[in-house]
Design a protein that fits this description.
Blueprint (H helix, E strand, L loop, with lengths): L3 E3 L14 E12 L4 E12 L3 E5 L6 H9 L6 E6 L2 E2 L7 E4 L11 H5 L1 H7 L1 H6 L1 H10 L15 H13 L5 E5 L7 H18 L2 E6 L2 H7 L2 E6 L4 E7 L14 H19 L1
Parallel strand pairs: 1-11, 4-9, 4-10, 7-8, 8-9
Antiparallel strand pairs: 2-3, 2-5, 5-6, 10-11
Helix pairs in contact: 8-9
The structure holds adenosine-5'-diphosphate (ADP) and magnesium ion.
The site of magnesium ion has 2 residues, from helix 1.
Length: 273
């Protein structure tokens, strides 16, 4: 990290900045030797409990690789990943993940999809016992009426809501999101972002979001990490001190615009380096 920029230096920063560090990455690097790709270079990152952080960068700069390493799906070539005081050495229950595609199984109803992680972990009886909790999650996500529906009866936004419920069913303490709404149309995406904020605030979730939309990163995050490519490095950490809950009308304010400009500037510098 070269510099830390406070967009509005004299304001109090978000409460999460005093919260305990929950995710700690130390000098994480990743090389794919077969293709001689140096994907990540000495990434240092601390996420505090209840905070919402994003990483933004051009396609191919290493964002998904970073998320996979954080999730324990891939080992780093160097460095360490600690979650809640324990090293991440493989997939874990306290980590929830979500991707661009909802990947619901078409032959299972919505509620059966939501309890799938429980079924995989603890078996069918446990999954049945989790139906009440799944119904509660579906209610929170506005999908009560669709518990018994099949995925082909859902819109894209509804399928992603179901995927949010599936991610939350095992009560993860951190959520890793890889461009979860980028396949949705813009209006649905804005709406889903506000829903995501509401759900995360209700649960005091710790979230790390990969996105290549600057406004999406700003409206959702307490901190935005700007990543430059080849090898992927954090070149800037921008603190977003807009009040919460964020609302879509903030997007048109000068303060929001200044944050977007600042991040765009760093991204362009990264590309030109
Ligand atoms: N399993 C892999 N084997 C070899 N190269 C990979 C692998 N996964 C990713 N890469 C390379 O690492 C770089 C970063 O990829 P990725 O993390 O998917 O970027 P992003 O998510 O930012 O678009 C790219 O150059 C990509 O080709
Ligand atoms: Mg990616």
């Amino acid at each position: 990290m070269e510099r830390r920029v406070n967009a509005v230096p004299h304001e109090t920063e978000s409460a999460a900045q005093d919260a305990r560090p929950i995710y700690v990455l130390t000098d994480v690097s990743k090389v794919f030797p077969k293709r001689n790709v140096h994907a990540l270079d000495h990434i240092n990152l601390t996420l505090r409990e209840g905070s919402f952080s994003s990483v933004i960068g051009a396609s191919g700069c290493g964002k998904s690789t970073l998320l996979k390493i954080m999730a324990g799906l891939q080992p780093p070539s160097e460095g360490s990943v600690m979650l809640d005081g324990r090293p991440v050495l493989g997939t874990r229950d306290d980590i929830g993940m979500m991707f661009q595609q909802a990947t619901l199984f078409p032959w299972r109803t919505v509620i059966e999809n939501v309890v799938l992680p429980i079924e995989i972990r603890d078996g069918k009886a446990a999954a049945r016992a989790a139906h009440d909790q799944a119904r509660e999650l579906l209610g929170m996500a506005g999908l009560s009426k669709f518990a018994g529906a099949y995925p082909n009866e859902l819109s894209g936004g509804m399928a992603q809501r179901a995927a949010i419920c599936r991610m939350l069913v095992s009560k993860p303490s951190v959520l890793l999101l890889d461009e979860p709404f980028s396949a949705l149309d813009e209006l649905t995406r804005d709406f889903m972002n506000m829903e995501l904020q509401r759900i995360c605030m209700e649960r005091n979730a710790t979230v790390f979001l990969v996105t290549h939309s600057i406004p999406e990163a700003v409206i959702l995050s307490d901190v935005v990490y700007v990543m430059s490519p080849r090898p992927g490095r954090f070149v800037e950490e921008v603190v977003v001190n807009l009040p919460r809950p964020r609302t879509l009308d903030m997007i048109t304010t000068p303060r929001f615009g200044a944050l977007v400009d600042r991040i765009r500037g760093h991204l362009e510098m990264g590309v030109l380096e």
